[in-house]
Amino acid sequence: MPQTYHQLRLDLATALAQFLEPREANAEAIRWFEEGLGRSRTWMAGHGDEGVPDEVRGQISHWLRRRKTGEPWAYLLGWTKWRGRRFAVNASTLIPRPETEMVLEAALELGQRLKVSRAVDVGTGSGILGISMALETDWEISATDISEGALAVAQQNAQALNANLDFKLGHLLDPVLGPLGLVVSNPPYVDPDDRPSLQPELAWEPDSALFADDHGLALNIELLMESRRRAAMACVLEIGTGQGAVLKEKGLAFGWNRIQVHQDLAGHDRVLMAL
Ligand SMILES: C[S@@+](CC[C@H](N)C(=O)[O-])C[C@H]1O[C@@H](n2cnc3c(N)ncnc32)[C@H](O)[C@@H]1O
Fold this sequence. Notes:
Helix content: 40-55%
CATH superfamily of the largest domain: Vaccinia Virus protein VP39
Low-confidence stretches: none
Shape: elongated
CATH architecture of the largest domain: 3-Layer(aba) Sandwich
Mean pLDDT: 96
CATH topology of the largest domain: Rossmann fold
CATH class of the largest domain: Alpha Beta
Distance between the termini: 66 Å
Strand order of the largest sheet: 5-4-3-6-7-9-8
Number of helices: 11
Strand content: 15-25%
Bound molecules: S-adenosylmethionine
Largest sheet: 7 strands, mixed
Structural class: alpha/beta
């Protein structure tokens, strides 16, 4: 008797549980079915007892072989969903994280309150922040990145999502001429000394998207300084656990009037706003 879709999903969850927590393995098996095979839960409810064609089984085996080496699912698939939109990703880009939505929410709220007309997304990666701002506001958006590979993916995403923004290659704010408006960024902020204790999957993401000198603080410090020097209206930055106090001190020393640090759901410093 041919293997059914239900059976295949159970077998997949068991195979994934050899290197993932059982709950994670189950959730990921559902994602593979939904995102990879286009077999939603609703589809499974009606067709789960049907036999699986050989090519579908072959596809799952191929993904499983790669996934066992630690390669993240989003890279296998070539895209991930963020804020309900589909963003292409590859080995040149960070895989967007759910917590970065806090940065976007803070930027949208602050930008509206300050009536900004321009914003810059620094270190755009796959483009999530810049593209979302372009689609959800009428601000003029620029996005920068030091990685040509990441910028190519961000441009592809902007085109696919019909977002209008300007992409520039270079260091932090250097490629953006003229007034900055609101500076928004999720720059690399991981301390290179923490590398040995990081999840193995992070090894698949570009070092240049993760690590920054000075215990992970270097780029956020430079952004606070440069944005202030160039009279940006405000900054909204993603920051690392335990980095809030020192960045607040630096920001005030650079002349910002008010610095707020917000924690994520796990209670860790995650977003810094400088005004
Ligand atoms: C943590 S990733 C964030 C990507 C994306 N904004 C997101 O939230 O998913 C940081 C990004 O900053 C870029 N980057 C690193 N150093 C940079 C620099 N000096 N200037 C501009 N971009 C830089 C990396 O290439 C990477 O795309």
